[in-house]
Amino acid sequence: MEVDRVAKTFVDRSIFITGGSGFLGKVLIEKLLRVCPDVKKIYLLMRTKKGKDPKQRLIDMFSNILFDGLKATHGLDNLMNKFQVIGGDVTLPDMGISPEDRQILIEEVSIIYHCAATIRFDETLKKAVLLNTRGTKMMIKLAKECKQLAMLCHVSTAYCHLHEKHLLEKPYEPPANPHKIIKCVEWLDESVVDAMTDKILGSLPNTYAFTKALGEGLVVETMDELPSVILRPSIVIPIYRDPLPGWTDNINGPTGLLIGAGKGVIRTMYCDSDGYGDYLPVDIAVNCMLLATWNFIENNDRSRRIYNVTSSAEIKVSWNQVIEMGREIVTKKIPLNGVLWYPGGSMKNNRLYHNFCMIFYHFLPAIVLDALLFCLGYKPVLIRVHKRILKGFQVFEYYANNQWDFDNSNVQYLRTVINSREKAMYKIDAEDLDMMAYFENCIKAARIYILNEKEETLPAARRHMRIMWWVDKICKHIIMGILLYYVARYFYYMIYEEEFSLNIVEQAIEA
């Protein structure tokens, strides 16, 4: 019988994770606890947030439905015993870790997963540098002190070297000297850094890409000293298979677009509809992290230190296909509650046409409906929503109207060295992928877990969608009728006036 060699890699090992409360971090923790139950300890860096101390935040994290299966199998108390919360903050010097906790990490930890990052594209440069770049530098400093370190896994992004239209699994020069940039933002006030941001970023579109590239550069320059591996996931999207198909804790990426379009709010996008993004289900990213750990530690493979965890080399789904699949699902299978208008609209290749549609399909209806809400005594919301959508479009448009491709030979190599049991448990291929079924799971999960729209509301949502279909058709026919009426009236008067003028001329000639 084939054994799970990957799980054996983690037996009696202590693991340190940053960013564990994030989307990727939660799925990583769940997978480790489920398939690697003999892990010795998981040290989790957490900061106080919204008045909750790190331990309370850990308890709150385990209340998420993602961990329900684990709690049913092992019990919450047993799961909690696997953890030790390390109070700290990646943005602080030495990550804000106390000397006592730091010494524990130095003595005990053998595997580090550095997942902490700000993924906000509009984050200020100072904050992004402190978290994505200096935070990585502080992690490298700690890793060098760890006495039992077997591997440091740094989670980067496939979209941090945007000048490379075909990204290989190799190191690239950072866009600036990361050490100088760190010193610069440490010395200067945030307002001064903000004033310099455009010049510092150069051709890069946002602080996220810039600071992640700097952070990766720091890891690359220490690869000869540290047993480190870099993973570059692309656009991380909801769970594909395990443990909860379609689950996510945010509306970033395609999920947000599908929800916005499904609610009838988003009706136009400036985008090359035939272009495609590189999407990666979060469980595939986590599986690759665990397989890369096993390959590095157990197989002692030092020739593969960078993994492009991407999908577009095998699967290319255009932006238009995403929207069309989403439209099919939300109109016929899983409609959302409170739909403002029947889902429609399209992607525009012409910016002027898109801006015109933004005014007439987004902002004018929002103004009318907000005015109606105000008159009825409710708080106006739609203008604020469309301002957020507009801000999101400004980020989305850069990536949607440019094209990148990624070599993922190292990831494909991992598929050749795992046995059939490991292939099933740590899936990193798309052999049986049904894209429509996947997006259906995504919308169903977003409906339940993000929008809090319970399954028993589906019949009412379907009835409402049918009503909105009729409303949409009737309104379109009314508008078309009005237009035809005025066009006909215009031509009628043109002809009438011409005939009237001819009669006048004829009468004048006769006279």
Structure description:
- By secondary structure, the protein is an alpha/beta fold.
- The protein has helices at 5-9, 23-35, 54-62, 68-74, 76-81, 99-108, 125-145, 178-187, 190-201, 207-221, 254-262, 282-297, 319-332, 351-375, 382-400, 409-416, 420-425, 435-450, 458-510; strands spanning 14-18, 41-46, 83-87, 109-114, 151-155, 166-167, 228-233, 235-237, 268-270, 279-281, 306-309, 346-348, 405-406.
- Strand 1 (14-18), helix 2 (23-35) and strand 2 (41-46) form a beta-alpha-beta unit.
- The termini are far apart.
- The mean pLDDT is 89.
How would the blueprint of this fold be written?
Blueprint: H1 5-9, E1 14-18, H2 23-35, E2 41-46, H3 54-62, H4 68-74, H5 76-81, E3 83-87, H6 99-108, E4 109-114, H7 125-145, E5 151-155, E6 166-167, H8 178-187, H9 190-201, H10 207-221, E7 228-233, E8 235-237, H11 254-262, E9 268-270, E10 279-281, H12 282-297, E11 306-309, H13 319-332, E12 346-348, H14 351-375, H15 382-400, E13 405-406, H16 409-416, H17 420-425, H18 435-450, H19 458-510
Descriptive labels:
two-stranded parallel ribbon, 19 helices, globular, 10% strand, 7-stranded parallel sheet, 511 residues, alpha/beta
